[in-house]
Design a protein that fits this description.
two-stranded antiparallel sheet; alpha+beta; transcription corepressor activity; 3 helices; coiled coil; Prefoldin; 4 strands; UXT; Helix Hairpins
């Protein structure tokens, strides 16, 4: 085999393994993170709807709160008509339940767009990997 062709094949393999596969791993990690965030907001939306449907938002309710390491304490919520939402950068804003649902819907749409974009980037990176593999195969077949 021609030494120049072998050198090119090694360069392509190195690029694929060092750059493209690393990028793919980072994108997959970001996708998992966004999916987890979206799941949290979907769960929060479900909880708020349950609070509204059962009318405990005004009358209050008792619950158990996880203090960490599976240690729970009993909590008495007297008025659940307002909720604090993390709006980013560690800032929390108090919303009524209806306002919180609106904010959550906006955030869910944003997460969906981000997830769609990440999936497109993953597909593009996978396509680049396949192109490099095809190029390597063509170079090997030339000799």
């Amino acid at each position: 085999m021609n030494p120049d062709v072998q050198k090119k094949i090694l360069q392509f393999e190195s690029f694929m393994n060092d750059v493209l596969r690393a990028d793919l791993a980072k994108l997959a990690e970001k996708l998992d993170s966004k999916n987890a965030e979206m799941a949290e907001f979907l769960e929060l939306k479900s909880i708020i709807k349950t609070l509204k449907d059962t009318n405990v938002d005004k009358s209050g309710f008792k619950t158990k709160v996880d203090m960490g390491n599976n240690f729970y304490i009993q909590a008495n919520i007297e008025d659940a008509s307002n909720i604090l939402l993390d709006v980013g950068l560690g800032h929390f804003v108090e919303f009524s339940l209806d306002e919180a649902l609106t904010v959550i819907d906006v955030r869910l749409k944003l997460f969906q767009r981000q997830i769609d974009n990440l999936r497109k980037q993953i597909a593009r990176t996978n396509a680049h990997i396949k192109l490099v593999l095809i190029g390597i195969k063509d170079l090997q077949d030339m000799t």
